[in-house]
Amino acid sequence: MSDKKRILIAPLNWGLGHATRCIPIINALLSQDFTPIIASDGVALALLKKEFPELGAVQLPSYQIKYPKKGKNFKLKMLLDTPKMLKAIKNEKKQVKQLVKELKLDGIISDNRFGVYHKKIPSVFITHQLNVLTGNTTWLSSKMHQSIIKKFKECWVPDFKGDINLSGRLGHLEKSELNIKYIGPLSRLSKRDLPKKYDTMVILSGPEPQRTLLEEKLSAELKSYKGVVLFVKGKIEPEQKITEENNITFYNFMNSEELEAAFNESEFVVSRSGYTTIMDLAKLEKKAFFIPTPGQYEQEYLAKRLKKSRTIPFSTQEKFKIKKLEKINNYRGFIGFNNNSTTNFEDLFTLFHSE
After folding, report:
1. pLDDT score recorded for residue 54
2. What whole-number distance in Å separates Cα of residue 186 and Cα of residue 93?
3. CA 160, CA 141: separation in Å to the nearest integer?
4. Domains of the chain (ranges plus CATH)?
5. Residue 74 pLDDT greater than 60, yes or no
6. What would the pLDDT profile of 122-176 be if each residue is shown by its tens digit?
7. Is the model's pLDDT at 71 over the cut of 70?
8. Whole-prediction pTM value?
9. CA 307, CA 333: separation in Å to the nearest integer?
10. Number of Cα atoms under 13 Å in the Cβ half of residue 298
């Protein structure tokens, strides 16, 4: 076995955002002579295996997160799914204990996987949600989340610490005993000066059935759209599929290199208001239109916050009509956003050399 330090990196399988924002971390670990080992389940694991086929990968228990068809049932569905999640977390803890022994791990980076930590090796929790918004139970869900974060040696928040930031009250506490490090936004993409090929790029992700419901709605609405559209469905399947229908080119998925080119070749982006997407758009200084996942408080909060600051317009899924895309021109987008901050991975990774 190599004498390089072995770091388990484990994103939550909740859409694709947690997995994609781990890509720059995995690349940084590789460039600084660590051996990353991927651990997740479902589409998150499939995506990272496609991006890093040469790396070791471990399947963790699934949290079995599914969204309700109606947004108003979101909180109830999450409550009903809690026993399944707690069982998965318990099994995850057991498996991590075994992995630490078997793989001789030197460190752990968990992106929102609650059971992926170990008392005897440096364990890091990545989250942009120090506060977890759940309506009138926000105080309780936030306290519970913070008590989980306390079990980790450090908490890395992918955002800026100051007043100009992307996550607002989600990622900033008035006072805290947590060992928080603001590491700057994480994105696997870079801004490039490429000729425009598409008027609008649609990119979907997130748990079912909401991903499919939005795909169906947008596919129907875009039939009357005059511009050239690139539509990335966010379905991680064994083979890439490309189909064309009038003015729309559909992809089931794209890898990071293809996505970076596509974003840079598109005038506007239509997507969910997930935090990873927001970090990508800020890095690329894009204009966009958001359709938050129905009932997901975090995405609704982020969309409202960006609309209020005249950055990005949004619509609910139910009320979305293609004509609403015209509003994009009345908002500034992430043009000129302060994205000069780069994450100091060398400094962050000293944690794994310290023990």
Report:
1. 97
2. 27
3. 23
4. 6-185+341-353 (3.40.50.2000), 198-330 (3.40.50.2000)
5. no
6. 999 999 999 998 888 888 889 999 999 999 999 999 999 988 899 999 999 988 8
7. no
8. 0.91
9. 10
10. 18
